[in-house]
């Protein structure tokens, strides 16, 4: 049963590491942009918008254009959060070794 004990230890370490990474990701900030950087949105890993920056040159534009640029910047930030999450979580199970012949129940 030594193999099972090793597996349980690896699993506990994996859980601890996953929790740490999830906390880091939740607090990480990314910046989304649109209009060649004229509109910027800073968002956390929890998808909370921390700040919005709109270049003053856009203040003379029509309302619909501003709304579209803001939506595009938010969407860009969301995509960047998701990409950051996948990048960080992708390597989480690296090095997790199953004992030879061990089959998962599913």
UniProtKB/TrEMBL annotation:
Q: Which residues cross the membrane?
A: none
Q: Which sequence ranges form a coiled-coil region, renumbered to this chain?
A: 4-31
One cellular component (GO) term of this entry: bacterial nucleoid
What InterPro entries does the record point to?
A: YbaB-like_sf, YbaB/EbfC
Keyword vocabulary terms for this entry: Coiled coil, Cytoplasm, DNA-binding
Protein function? Binds to DNA and alters its conformation. May be involved in regulation of gene expression, nucleoid organization and DNA protection.
Share what the entry says about its subunit structure, partners included: Homodimer.
Task: List the PANTHER family.
Answer: NUCLEOID-ASSOCIATED PROTEIN YBAB
Q: What is this protein called?
A: Nucleoid-associated protein GCM10007877_20250
Q: Name one GO molecular function term.
A: DNA binding
Q: What is its main location?
A: cytoplasm
Cellular localisation: Cytoplasm, Nucleoid
Q: Does the keyword Coiled coil apply?
A: yes
Family, per entry? Belongs to the YbaB/EbfC family.
The record's annotation in HAMAP family points to:
DNA_YbaB_EbfC
């Amino acid at each position: 049963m030594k193999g099972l004990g090793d597996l349980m230890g690896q699993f506990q370490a994996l859980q601890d590491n996953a929790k740490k990474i999830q906390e880091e990701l939740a607090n990480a900030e990314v910046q989304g942009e649109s209009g060649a950087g004229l509109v910027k949105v800073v968002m956390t890993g929890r998808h909370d918008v921390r700040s919005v920056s709109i270049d003053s040159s856009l203040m003379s534009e029509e309302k619909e254009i501003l709304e579209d640029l803001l939506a595009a910047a938010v969407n860009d930030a969301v995509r960047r959060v998701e990409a950051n999450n996948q990048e960080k979580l992708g390597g989480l199970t690296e090095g997790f070794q199953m004992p030879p012949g061990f089959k998962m129940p599913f």
